[in-house]
Amino acid sequence: MALARLRKELKDLVSGEDVSGVTATPRGDDLTRLVGTLKGPEGTPYEGGVFFVDIVIPQQYPFEPPKMKFENKIWHPNISSQTGAICLDILKDKWSPALTIKTALLSLQALLSAPEPDDPQDAQVAGMYKSNIEEFNKKAAEWVAQYAGGEPPKDPNVDAIVGMGFTDAQARAALDGNGNDLARALNFLLG
Fold first, then answer.
1. Mean pLDDT over all residues of the chain?
2. Cis peptide leading into 26, omega within 30 of 0?
3. Is residue 147 classed exposed, middle or buried when 0-12, 13-18 and 19+ CB atoms within 10 A define those classes?
4. Which of 43, 34, 40, 31 is nearest to 5 (CA)?
5. In a designed cystine with 94, which of 14, 79, 89, 128 is the match (CB 3.0 to 4.6 A)?
6. Model confidence over 116-125: pLDDT tens digits?
């Protein structure tokens, strides 16, 4: 293993000068076990989330890719919602010694922005992404809020009903009971 290269990569990742939103630090004294951190990209359902990635550096690094998996639960077609396993070509057969831990983390961040549902790690999530993108975005944002420290997604229908003097719970119950249809929910409440 090229320890000098790995030390340089880690020094660059923790320098604090980077604004990319990705970092990696050793877990204790072992340079072959790292924890990567990446911020959810703006304009995606992952925005506001902070994601942790378990990174294991193999003996043949940089000629072999690092082994990475998400530690947070995440709703994404290319990441297992159960295990955090990642389906990304540069972590498998498209790895090159010219790539670094940072480029791998940046690629994961890009994957959050542009899922590849036709090459899924999680078929159920990919199916939802392809058949109902609005429901997918809502669930992904809910998982960010629950597992990655993001803010809960805003529902404009709930906000509209709350703005009329009803409680958040009343608004959600009325919407849930009426297929999230604002007009029907209001008819139910004003009844």
1. 89
2. no
3. middle
4. 31
5. 89
6. 999 999 999 9
Instruction: Give the whole-angstrom CA distance, residue 15 versus residue 180.
Output: 47
Q: Which two tokens stand for residue 20?
A: 């990319």
Catalytic residue among 74, 87, 105, 141: 87
pTM score above 0.90: no
3-state helix/strand/coil string of the chain: CCHHHHHHHHHHHCCCCCCCCEEEEEECCEEEEEEEEEECCCCCCCCCCEEEEEEECCCCCCCCCCEEEECCCCCECCECCCCCEECCHHHCCCCCCCCCHHHHHHHHHHHHHCCCCCCCCCHHHHHHHHHCHHHHHHHHHHHHHHHCCCCCCCCHHHHHHHCCCCCHHHHHHHHHCCCCCHHHHHHHHHC
Domains of the chain by residue range: 3-147, 156-190
User: Rounded to 5 degrees, what angle do the CA atoms 36, 111, 153 make?
Assistant: 90
pLDDT in tens, 66-80: 999 999 999 999 999
Q: Which CATH number fits domain 156-190: 3.30.1560, 1.10.8, 3.30.450, 2.60.40?
A: 1.10.8
Position of tokens 């990569």? 9
132 is catalytic: no
